[in-house]
Specification:
It contains 12 helices and 8 strands. The protein is α/β, with parallel strands linked by helices. Helix content is about 55%, strand content about 15%.
Length: about 270
């Protein structure tokens, strides 16, 4: 599958992260992309920045054989109500949604006549280090599936999952960067409390996290193995770990992930 045209409904950071590799690698020509945004100011700015057609009228974007739907989830009903019927064709057009908390059933109900894919990309996709979970709608041919897989593989790792597992993936991979950022900030705050200048404390915390992840990946270690490698009898690390256990940090993180997954399920139910 090599679509001649691509429509983009909503051109925020995630849509731009997905679009740019397609343009830069020549997968689709700039003059074959039609995007729509909500304000004239954004349209002018993004058209100049990306070199693609960006406007306020959604009809040209909806006429494309492949459409990337990247608006805010609360705008779904408004967008679907204004969407024209899909172009008449022997092969139904493809709708790729990156909307958090919007189920395949709701997508297919909102956009009859389209083949739908639900995707859950995370923020590191913006730097090509993302994780995207996706679930397929009904009757997607292999060619369309491969095109979607190739699209998201350009910005990171892709996981094909049953839709029921996307809430868990969202909780770990999509909400996770915010939780990791809180932990990183707390490490830096601890360094400041221990007497380090804040820039140095943040540099050390970030370097420690990056190095720990690299060690886990390259040596194939379980996190518990790394913990045990660092923890010596009656040493500094076990004293720190005792504080975490007394504060219930491990349990709090588990409950935070579960809360994110439950919220995603609630949004889907809505």
């Amino acid at each position: 599958m090599n679509p001649s045209r691509l429509g983009v409904i909503g051109l925020g950071r995630m849509a731009r992260a997905l679009l740019l590799p397609l343009l830069d690698q020549g997968v689709i020509a700039r003059d074959q992309v039609q995007a729509v945004v909500a304000s004239e100011e954004s349209a002018h700015r993004l058209q100049a920045e990306l070199g693609v057609a960006v406007g306020l009228d959604a009809a040209p974007a909806w006429a494309a054989p492949v459409v990337l739907l990247a608006v805010k989830p609360q705008l779904l009903d408004k967008v679907s109500a204004a969407a024209p019927p899909p172009p008449a064709a022997a092969d139904p057009p493809l709708l790729i949604s990156v909307l958090a908390g919007v189920s395949l059933e709701r997508l297919q109900r909102s956009f009859p006549g389209w083949r739908c894919v639900r995707t859950v990309p995370n923020t590191p996709c913006l730097v090509g280090a993302g994780i995207t979970g996706l679930a397929w709608g009904d009757d997607l041919p292999a060619e369309q599936r491969q095109w979607v897989l190739d699209l998201f593989a350009r910005v990171g790792v892709v996981k094909e999952l049953p839709e029921g597992q996307l809430d868990g993936l969202l909780a770990v991979a999509s909400s996770g960067p915010a939780l990791a950022a809180v932990l990183l900030e707390a490490f830096a705050d601890g360094g400041v409390a221990a007497g380090l200048p804040r820039p140095l404390a943040l540099e050390l915390a970030l370097g420690m996290m990056k190095g720990s992840i690299k060690l886990l990946e390259e040596q194939g270690l379980h996190p518990a193995e790394l913990k045990d490698m660092v923890t010596s009898p009656a040493g500094t690390t076990i004293a720190a770990l005792r504080q975490l256990e007394q504060a219930g940090v491990r349990s709090a993180l588990i409950e935070a992930v579960l809360a994110a997954a439950e919220r995603s399920r609630a949004l889907n139910a809505g």
